[in-house]
Amino acid sequence: xxxxxxxxxxxxxxxxxxxxxxxxxxxxxxxxxxxxxxxxxxxxxxxxxxxxxxxxxxxxxxxxxxxxxxxxxxxxxxxxxxxxxxxxxxxxxxxxxxxxxxxxxxxxxxxxxxxxxxxxxxxxxxxxxxxxxxxxxxxxxxxxxxxxxxxxxxxxxxxxxxxxxxxxxxxxxxxxxxxxxxxxxxxxxxxxxxxxxxxxxxxxxxxxx
Length: 209
What we know:
Blueprint: E1 2-4, H1 10-20, H2 28-37, E2 42-52, H3 59-64, H4 95-103, E3 116-125, E4 131-136, H5 145-155, E5 162-167, H6 171-179, E6 183-192, E7 195-202
Antiparallel strand pairs: 1-2, 2-3, 3-4, 5-7, 6-7
């Protein structure tokens, strides 16, 4: 099942993030920013067969109790490639995104009356077709979860294209996107510090390979 991210998913998302991007994971402030900026296109993939009770004192509960913004690290540096799934974009967040998202942190209240399902993966993309981040829990990779999440992004109406940035050295990412019908269309020099980024995109009428 795929549904929009909610605050009760935050602990699971942080675990997936730290396992997928161990060198430079997004922190909880960044995910609150993404939730604020992309509430309809920040999606999670759920395993409904193993519901998990909400933990007391969880990151989601702590975040909901915030009354004012608090910085907890920079979010404007790109991600490293994920191990295993390793296929997904490493995107810089604009500096203003974290401030805007944190400003809304105190306004987001989790639904304590709802059972929390097990989150296996997530995707964040913008309405204009930019895939910002996508990751799947290492124990649930190679099951088509990443493809289903990406297909949901492809089915969302966009202006002209769907695209992402990928490290030149990330062969896994390139293979994944090419299988999903994307094409390499450009390059950004030194996007990841000293490493170039490849621009990979798919137009709405591009067939899947």
